[in-house]
Design goal:
Elements: E1 29-31, E2 37-38, E3 41-42, E4 47-52, H1 64-69, H2 84-99, E5 120-127, E6 136-143, E7 152-157, H3 168-175, E8 181-185, E9 194-195, E10 200-202, E11 208-210, E12 228-229, H4 231-234, H5 243-261, E13 274-280, H6 282-291, E14 300-304, H7 318-332, H8 344-363, H9 372-385, H10 390-395, H11 397-401, H12 404-416, E15 429-433, E16 439-440, H13 444-453, E17 464-466, H14 473-485, H15 490-500, E18 513-518, H16 530-539, E19 544-549, H17 562-567, H18 572-586, E20 596-598, H19 611-614
Helix pairs in contact: 2-13, 5-6, 7-8, 7-9, 7-12, 7-14, 8-9, 12-15, 14-15
Length: 619
Amino acid sequence: MTMPPILRRTGASTLHLLLACGALAMAGCSTPGSTRTSGDRDVFGSTRITEHRGHDDLLTAGLGLDGLRAMTPPAFADAAAPTPAELRRRALWANWRGIADMAPGGGYGNLYGSTVAVPGREFSTFATVPGANQPHRVLVQVPDAFDLERRCVVVTAASGSRGVYGAIAVAGAWGLPKGCAVAHTDKGAGTDYFDLDSGQGVRLDGTVGTVADGLAFAPGAPAGARGVAFKHAHSGDNPEADWGRHVKQAAQFALQSLGTAFPQAAPFTFDNTRVIAVGISNGGGAVLRAAELEGDWLDAVVAGEPNVLVEGHGSRALYDYTTEAALLMPCALLHPSLAPLPQPPMTAQVAPLWAAQCATLQKAGLVEGADTTAQAASAYQRLHDAGWTDEALRAGALSAGFDLWRSVAATYASAYTRAALGPSPCGYTFAAVDATGKPRAATTVERAAWWSDASGIPPGAGVQAIPPAGSNPMTDLQCLRALWTDANDARAAKLRQGVAQTRAGMPRAGLPVVVVHGTSDGLIPMAFTSVPYVAGAKASGRDVRFWQVRNAQHFDGFLGLPDYAARYVPLLPYVYAALDRVQAHLDGNGPLPADAVIATVPRGAGNALEARHLAMPAE
């Protein structure tokens, strides 16, 4: 499929056509899609089409760079009943800020990236993977300037467990200004929370409704169920096992949507439309899973900091190293060889808690030593022996400080064991809480903002993870770790089976793939993910290129913190640059990028990011 541009052209002139639903599209309308079927189940539901022009647009909902930099989210006129347009604007604000460094001096908008207004239309629906209990969202953004002479779709998946706009700063910022349609999926996770107390969830347009309204996630709660359910943990599916299929369905929906948008230029097919897949983090893992699917439907893949598991070559499962880090990293971070850690004020605040965890680990026989210094040395050595580098450990300080590892582990334990509703394998539930930390019913205002404000995994947006009664933090973590290490636990066997279903294969032969990863990634260390994937792919004769970016960690959004900004460079510029090189190669204008270890230069405290800091490869 990597044919010269002339073979990608249809000869059709650029058309500016009105949608069949006309002016009603401003508020959103539903039309029956030309439904594809698999077995006896529809793949796509009805399609909602909206227009975004004038004070609104596809990329930033009219906020622009200044609006995205605002420290407070766009307000709702009625906090209890926000409109679909208000929810969309706020979701875009939240997802931009969660992924990109929008801080002044960080380089976004002037050194790399774009927030230019892109008018156009959005097509959204629910899609179903055969055998899944719950649908996933797919959404296609079609710019008015879509280039019918060079048909292009950029397909992407949300990072982390984010909602359907979770890759807007990755795929949207690159593809939309270039006249490409951008197809998104939440890959079976997302922010479609369900309130068990009120029996309400999220409709296609982001507003709150009941099961009768047709929801993005309706868990079939038993009578008397309380708290909050969310799709990644409680769908009864193992969504990660289907990430590649989610991505392909998003691409299929893009072709269908383009046929609706430009009927006189139809059909849009994988043979006459270029499709490039891009994603970061879990989204990076998703596009690599798409790369292994049969069929000549993808032209190229760019995966940034991917969460990917392969057979051999030192690859480790996310659940394995996450639960290991949850137990040992807080203590290991007190080792003097890692000092000074990023964000000294936060480090000083949590250091006493980390010292207490060292002592508890020693009592449990998980580290050795008579005092905190010796215990930290023991934890540090255990992590080193397991493959953690000093770079990854330092950058992981923020995840340890926020107790992020516990939240990830509790969610993935439910997903891998397909636990559905009820307590997770280690007893966690989820709910809003009162001032004393006790579960309570969510308010109307809280429910209304979940879809736009949440990140897909509590805590956040007013929802907290609730440990089982009578437990303590260390026993909770030991329970989560035992689900990986205890060979005699039936729950552990089920979890390992679920993890095995997520293992990636090699990309299709001849498919160009570029992997970009920061050497300082402390959340998804490249030693456990990208390095084994690239090694396996090259051993299999696949065309995979690898950029290793020095001084880049996992979260560009954390670069708004002064000490992170001083130490680390953003990863997004390299993802965009890889996309540029791939596009040029597909156009016949240059080779694929060569493997590179990119020697970046930290900008230091108080300095603006400059091109010299990025040290972008020349070829």
